[in-house]
Amino acid sequence: MTAPTDTDTASRSEEPTAVAATGVEASADAASEKRQDRSARIAVTVFPLIMFGAFLAAFFSPSTFVPLAGYMTPLLAITMLGMGMTLTIPDFTMIARHPKPVILGVLSQYAVMPLVGWSVANLLPLSPELKVGIILIGCVPGGTTSNVVSYLAKGNTALSVSMTAFSTMLAPIITPLLTLWLAGTYMQVPAGSMALSIVQIVLLPVGAGLACNVFFHKQVARIQPAMPWVSVVAIAAVVAAVASKSQPLIATAGPLMFAAIALENATGYALGYAVARAFGVSRADRRTIGIEVGLQNAGLGSTLALQYLSAAVAAPCAVATFWHTITGSLLAMYWRLRGFPAGEDPHATVRELRRCTKSRGTVTHERLTTPQGGEAADV
């Protein structure tokens, strides 16, 4: 028997250390994931309550919140800056590496939701201003809460972030054109001015936030935990400002307007998921695309409407802002509790699942069939 060398002894002594280090890293990752999960749960529970509280406060005491209307543009810009700080360069490179789900999702968002908004607006007996507001909700890009909702729903969070970023980048061109096309018959829509405002209050702040995260990542990382709360306070202020300006209209047309918003939102979820399923993307991607299509940046719609259209047009957008957070939270909890079919990879496409099922069937057939007519193997 050969005696162990110094090298053998050293390698053996290093093995427990390596195992311990791996265990520490795994424990740290688990703790980090647990913290993220807890933060996300708090977000989707508390955010809707803050939004709803801001709406009720402004509705019952409108004079208190009317002055906030003059600060809507910087408030929304702060929200977009916070969104930009959560983005990284890989979020955009995913579009090149996995283009199908991203492009499918963004096309669904800008094709399905505008037509859904137009259909709902024409289906219900709404005033022209409310029709324009419902259509505008369908024409804005994805909402900032969709990423948290996708995470809690066990969707593809990276896809959600990429879709939100991509649709936001396209918003200065697509949102004004779609609004002009679908709502131009009801009232004059200043598409050019709206496009310039979207660049100023969306594109530039998002770009600035991204640049800060890339070049000053350590400093940004310190304030990132607080940014979602800053954003939700800013959006709540936007909701309060619009609700205070539109209080008489909301009081008279409230039930019908709520019905239109609920119908548009639910249809967006359903059609977004259905389109994704029809194109054979994975279950996780279907959930994400459904959420992204259903959850719109109604805060942007409120700001644009109050600045260029009217308070009446902004009213549905304000209501949709907190309604989307409520339904998004409920949908996330439902999908999280439902989970996925046992033994199925939620990130596998339909084609990959069929290929896997076919290969399993071939293996089972080979095991059941023995050469030269022998007995079947035990399964």
- Which CATH class? Mainly Alpha
What characterizes the major β-sheet? none
The quaternary state of the protein chains shown equals single chain
Low-confidence spans: 372-379
Average pLDDT taken over every residue: 78
Task: Indicate the overall shape.
Answer: globular
Task: Summarize this structure briefly.
Helix content is 81%, strand content 0%. It is mostly helical. It has a single domain (38-341), classed as Up-down Bundle (Na+/H+ antiporter like fold), CATH 1.20.1530.
Map the helices and strands.
Elements: H1 6-60, H2 62-65, H3 72-85, H4 89-97, H5 99-123, H6 128-139, H7 146-152, H8 157-183, H9 191-215, H10 217-223, H11 227-245, H12 247-278, H13 283-294, H14 298-308, H15 311-338, H16 350-368
Helix pairs in contact: 1-7, 1-11, 1-15, 3-9, 3-11, 4-5, 4-8, 5-6, 5-8, 5-12, 5-13, 6-8, 6-15, 7-8, 7-13, 7-15, 8-9, 8-13, 9-10, 11-14, 11-15, 12-13, 12-15, 14-15
Describe it for me?
The protein has a single domain, classed as Up-down Bundle (Na+/H+ antiporter like fold). It is 81% helix and 0% strand. The protein is built from 16 helices and no strands.
Provide the descriptors you would attach to this structure in a database record.
81% helix, Na+/H+ antiporter like fold, disordered C terminus, 379 residues, 16 helices, mainly alpha
